[in-house]
Amino acid sequence: MTPNATGADAVIDAVTAVLLIVGALMSLGAAIGLLRFPDLMSRMHAATKPQVLGLFLVLAAMGLQMREWWVWPVLAVAWIFQLLTVPVSAHMVGRAGYRTKHLHPELLSTDELEAVVLRAAGQRAAEKAQEAGSAMPHAGNARNGGSEDPNGVNGGPSA
Amino acid sequence: MKDIVLIVTAVILSLAAAGAIYRIAVGPSLLDRVLASDVLLAILGAALAIDMAVNRHLNNLVLLVALTLIGFIGSVTVARFVADRRGQVNDS
Q1: Is A147 near chain B, with CB under 8 Å?
Q2: Interface with A, mutate which of B7, B12, B26, B69 (most A CBs under 10 A)
Q3: How many CB atoms lie within 10 A of CB B79?
Q4: In a domain, B77, yes or no
Q5: Per-residue pLDDT for B87 more than 60?
Q6: How many Cβ atoms sit within 10 Å of the Cβ of residue B7?
Q7: Residue range A89-113, pLDDT digits in tens
């Protein structure tokens, strides 16, 4: 920042200061959310504030201070990479959190994954039952000459 | 102006880092700790960028871009191999 700035420099410095302080406040908000929210999912909501908006504000302040045009594409690249990679880690953490049951189901307004998980569990149970049942029908198959398919009776899980 | 911005942001970021480190220390589950370490990384990136903006240098720009590129690998790796250990015998 320019010492004893006047005119346009003073305005740019003031805007930079506001952007920097608000960007830092995003980090503070994330920390408060981490400390106060009850479970993993709501903490993930708070954790994205400094990663996306906080980084954007701080990078914008950097671009304002540098007064060189080539800096802006580099800063945009940094922010775009952050936008691309943060959802990946959030998806993995959220998925692992759901599977290991680190959540309070009474706090969720909707649980769209529950039906999918129940259906997958039902399919897995059906496959396991079919595998356990396929050992004996093979012996019967050899005795009967293999004319009919014993697995055709129970049909198996479709789709 | 410069000193005021530096002091204010340093205090805010220090408080935020303290909160994130507290969550890393006490966090009830491994995923809470991973999430808090992600926030700590974001705070570090913000500190680097604030230093560059206030002092008008670009020494850490490459480090900042690299952080945004590969910062997610750690949490993805940990989340990939996390397992539900509750209800099992603690053999560690």
Answers
A1: no
A2: B12
A3: 23
A4: yes
A5: no
A6: 10
A7: 999 988 888 888 777 777 778 888 8
Looking at the structure of chain A, the number of domains it has is 1
Residue A95: strand, helix, or coil? helix
Residue B80's alpha-carbon distances to A95, A139, A143, B32, B90, in angstroms, are 9, 42, 48, 14, 21
Q: How far apart are CA B23 and CA A47, in angstroms?
A: 12
DSSP three-state, residue A145: coil
Q: Which residues on B lie below 8 Å from A43 (Cβ)? A: 23, 32, 35
Please report whether residue B66 resides in a domain: yes
- Write out the residue range of the structural domain in which residue B54 sits: 2-81
Q: Which two tokens stand for residue B6?
A: 């530096």
Integer-rounded Cα radius of gyration of chain B = 17
Q: Establish if A55 belongs to a structural domain.
A: yes
**Nearest CA to CA, how far is A129 from chain B (Å)?**
25
Distance in Å, alpha carbon of A136 to nearest chain B alpha carbon:
34
State mean pLDDT over B11-27: 93
Domain for residue A3, yes or no? no
When divided into structural domains, chain B yields a total of 1
Can you tell me the mean pLDDT for A141-157? Answer: 46
Q: Does A20 touch chain B (CB under 8 A)?
A: yes
A residues 43-102 closer than 8 Å to B (CB)? 43-44, 47, 50-51, 54-55, 58-59, 61-62, 64-66, 71, 74, 77-79, 81-82, 85-86, 88-89, 92-93, 95-97, 99-102
A32-39 mean pLDDT: 91
Contact A65, B56 (CB under 8 A): yes
